[in-house]
Amino acid sequence: MSLRRTMLFIPGNNPGMLQNGGVFGADSVILDLEDAVAPQEKDAARFLVAQALKTVDYGTSEKVVRINPLDTFGAKDIQMIVPCQPDVLLVPKVESAQDIEGVTRLVAQAEMEGQKPVQLIALLETAKGIALAYQIAQTKGRLVALALGAEDYTAGLGAARTKEGQEIFTARSLVINAAAAAGIQSLDTPFTDANDEDGLYQDALTGKELGFKGKLAINPRQIDVIHGVLNPTAATIEWAEAVVQAIRKAEAEGSGVASLHGKMVDAPIVARAEHILQLARKLGVEVMQ
Amino acid sequence: MMVAADKEEEVRKIGQAGTLESNDVMITVVPGKAGSGVFIELTSIVKDQYGDAIRRTLLDVVAEQGSRDLYITVADRGALDCTIRARLLTALTRAGAVGKKGVV
Q1: CB distance from A236 to chain B under 8 Å?
Q2: CATH code for the domain defined by B23-97
């Protein structure tokens, strides 16, 4: 599963930002054809993003394109963008499994022979999308994650959007649970005040504690803060190694349960420890095999 | 006299794309008289260093798209090759000359 701690939005009709998107160290860059582009410039952004995909070096960042919904410019986006080999399409305003199936069909038609299959992430940003999160998450084939878009969602609810995020607690939990149940990733909504570093830290921490695996970002300055929250700490890695050692020792002695500092270590604890070690390895930290 | 088969690839109206912001380029294409060829009027902050390369890129795109008889005005603000290609393709599309494949 790809590391998607941070996914940085880049406006699709801004050449300066598109050409520099790879230097900030985000796990993914999202070249945005939707909300960041005025309706009369959709054609220009589509050409620009297509050319950027073909020529700009985004380094280790995964290349994601947010297309428009299928009832506006989505089909045209897919037709031009998919042959330029993005890694993922972020599909906005998904409200049903049929929405993802529709995009899947168009992507399959647009792919070139031998091309690495383009994956999909569903952006849930309406009450209906949240209500059907599990049905959407189960769409087979290309879907690798659910993402929450809280601004449109709260606008639709008629709720005020706050920094504390009480109003999106249920939506966050539903997205995380649906994604986990379907075995895919869940990604948190962006924190929209790029100047409030403390607020971002708290918001990212809340998301992590609830179970999100990554967070959308709207400004390069947000990347380090989010990584700081989502990266495992030295103490956590140490704990995870101790857990894995304890269970291996127990298994060697014919038991499926171990004890560490007086606390029981069973399968879910081991799974969490292994996930932490896997993440640490991906980040280049030397940990036990 | 224009050849009927070529009509689809000819520019029929003025098309413009891009901005004057840094790293961008504004391109305007105007239909020329039949047989007049492609004429490029280029202003660029890096004209001395990259003027020839910019012209080459523009002519490549025009040739790929099967367009001819064009007057192209280019105001460059240090755009990369990919941006120049994208803005010209957009301007040509807006001018009604989608080109042979209609793709990048």
Answers
A1: no
A2: 3.30.230.10
Please write the tens of the pLDDT for every residue from A215-250.
Answer: 999 999 999 999 999 999 999 999 999 999 999 998
A125 among the known binding-site residues? yes
Using the 8-state DSSP alphabet, how is residue A12 labeled? T
ipTM of the assembly? 0.87
Please give the full DSSP string across B44-59, using - where no structure is assigned: ETTHHHHHHHHHHHHH
Identify the residue whose tokens are 């998904």: A94
What residue segments make up the domains of chain B, in order of their start? 23-97
Distance from CA of B1 to the nearest CA of A (A): 32
Token digits of residue B73 = 């005005």
Number of residues written out for chain B? 104
Domains along the sequence of chain A with CATH: 6-230 (3.20.20.60), 234-283 (no CATH)
Instruction: Give one DSSP letter per residue of A175-243, joined into a string.
Output: HHHHHHHHT-EEEEPPP--TT-HHHHHHHHHHHHHHT-SEEEESSTTHHHHHHHHHSPPHHHHHHHHHH
With 0-12 CB in 10 A as exposed, 13-18 as middle and 19+ as buried, what is A259?
exposed
Q: Cβ contacts (< 8 Å) between B96 and chain A: which residues? A: none
CA B54 to chain centre: 11
Distance from CA of B29 to the nearest CA of A (A): 15
B51, B53, B57, B62: CA torsion to nearest 10: 60
The model's pLDDT over A39-95, given as tens digits with 9 standing for 90+, comes to 999 999 999 999 999 999 999 999 999 999 999 999 999 999 999 999 999 999 999
**Chains A, B: CB pairs < 8 Å:** 57
Tell me, yes or no, if A50 comes closer than 8 A to chain B by beta carbon.
yes
- The response to whether A152 counts as a known ligand-binding position is yes
Backbone φ and ψ of A207, nearest 5° = -60, -45
pTM of the model: 0.90
